[in-house]
Amino acid sequence: NDKQMRKAILSNPYMLGLRTERIQESIDFFAKCEVLPPELASMLTLQPMLVNLNAKDNLEAKRRFFRDELGVNTRAFRLLILYKPQTLMPSLGVLKEKVKFYHEEFGLSYEVIAKRIAVIPLAYAEDTLRYKAKFLKDFLGWSDETFTKALSNYPAMLGYSIEDNLVKTFEYLEEDLGMKREAVAEVLANHPHVFGYSLEKKLRPTVSYILRLYPNATVAQAIAAAKHSFENRIRPRSELLERLDLLWRYSPRYIASMSMKDFGDKFTDMELDVTDEEIRAKKRKVDSDLKV
Fold it and tell me: What end-to-end distance do the CA atoms of the chain give, in Å?
């Protein structure tokens, strides 16, 4: 639209001097990558310099590198360029060096790199990545093995601000929730995606809600459950279980992680208004082998 066009031109006025054929080649390349026109418009608004890259000699060479040398499939490559289009801006040589760096410096397997490529911070300088890795290991007391495990699960954590994300998340768990330092380090190692949550908009209100509602929930369970949508999963499901007096029986993580079908098959037949006696009768029908 006009707003996107103005923003792109202001960021990259050079694009107006490109030949129409050159622009069309770029459009055709992204179409081959299964990027839809509205998605391409958003990409070019975010990273308008992409149209400056030659589709045949530059973009295609990078696509072949990700596909042939790393084994990144079309779907993963599509997600990569949709959410991190700036990844295509460095030269092919720089990209190869950065992938090699994650493998040799942090011990990530090429299989993990290919699988997580859309969330690996490839645009950061190596010294910056080393500094953040050292900070995490020193601050949390993580071993090299623990760090590599956490990074393999969520490499995006190296893209977050030390002060605004990493430290504040740790302080919330330790100071506000009263967790011991070793316990915080273990929870963050098992759930490193927590570093990416907004403390005030997601993590704090979600964990507070779960701990207030579920009588047997631990902090670790609440944090694990927080990865799921609060509005679409955690709150509506919890409210139903509260009406059925079943919150004591289940962990919030288990309830939040159930598929829509499994949750519906198990609990929606109880959703009608019922008496306390009926609730108790229905509770006895709940399978005893469900994990608490």
Answer: 51
